[in-house]
Amino acid sequence: MLRQPVYVVAVAAAVVSYAVMSFIMTATPISMHVHDHHTDTQTAWVIQSHLLAMYAPSLVSGRIIGGSACAPAWPRGSRSCSPAWRSRAPGTT
Fold it and tell me: DSSP 3-state assignment of 88?
C-alpha cells in the first residue's frame, strides 16, 4: 500500500488535517481565555456548542435518510457495478 502514490497522498492529507484540527481545538479555548479575557464558562460554552452542532444532526439523519428515496439507492448502485467487477481480468486489482 505504501507504494501507491494515491494512498500516500490520502494518508498525508489525513495526518495534516487532523494535526491542524487538533491545534485549532486546543488553541481556541486558550486564546479565548488568555487573550480575549473570556471566562471559563464562556469558553466552555463555545466548545460545547461546537460539539453539539457537530454531532446533534446524527441523531436525526438516519430517520431523514430512511424516509427519503435515497434509502434504496445503494442496492441499485451495487448491482450496476457488479458487471464491471465480473469483467475484470483475473489477477488485477
Answer: coil
